[in-house]
Every structure is written in structure tokens, then in C-alpha cells.
Amino acid sequence: KKQFVAFCVGVAALGVASVFSGWMYFDHKLNDQEQANQLIVSTNQNLDTQLKALDGLQERRNAIIERMKLIQGLQGQRPVTVRLVDELVRVTPPTMYLTKFSRIGDKFTIEGKAESPNTVAELLRNLEASPWYRNAFMNSFL
Predict the structure, then answer these.
(1) Cα 25 to the center of its chain, rounded Å
(2) pLDDT value, residue 142
(3) Looking at residue 140, what DSSP letter applies?
(4) Domain ranges of the chain
(5) Buried b (16+ CB within 10 A) or exposed e, 31-69
């Protein structure tokens, strides 16, 4: 009977030791998993911060690209304006002088004085023949 009690106590002690070691093992695994989860959460927070910074950079990049396109457009139009004025000087008859030249969009307004209506007609023909001015017409004649 003593042997049986000793055996039962041994089995009970072994069971308690097994449960305790299992509990320690799973507690350790749980702590490891919680640390891994915390690392993932902190990494996600860092990545979110970096993404917000990248969004700001993307907006700045787009704004800079838009400014560059505007500047390139203006740079491309600069020679056009010079060419338009130069061409106007070339097509203006010598017996005519201009008092006003303005541009609104693709429309030009030219005002000036001429010796005769034939001079005005010559200007219109020259403008029509020019590659820079097309569809020339006279709005008023005073």
C-alpha cells in the first residue's frame, strides 16, 4: 500500500511538473508572440509616418512638375512672340505705320495709319501669305 501511495504521489508530482512546464512553455511562446505583435505594430506606425511624408513629397513633386511645364510653355512661346512681331514688321507696307498691336489668345488687333486703302489691302494680303498670320480680316476702316 505504501508503494501505491508513493507511486500515486510520484505520478501526481510528475503531472504537476508536466502541467507547470507546459504552462511555462506556452507562457514563453505567448510573450514571444506579443513582442512580435508589438514589433509589427511599431513598424506599421513607422511605415504610416513614412507614407504620409511620401504623400507630401508626391504633392510637392506634382506641383514642381506643373511649374516646370508652365515655365517650359512660356520658354517655348517666347520666340513665338518675337517671331510674330518680326513677321509683322516684314509684312507691313512702307507707306503704313502701326499705332497699336495687341494679342488676346489667338486673335491680334492691329491699328495704324495708311496712305490709301490699297496699302491696307496689301497688308491684308501679306498677312494672309504669312505662315504666322492666317485668316486676316479687316474689322473697321476709318
Answers:
(1) 55
(2) 66
(3) -
(4) 1-78, 92-142
(5) eeeeeeeeeeeeeeeeeeeeeeeeeeeeeeeeeeeeeee
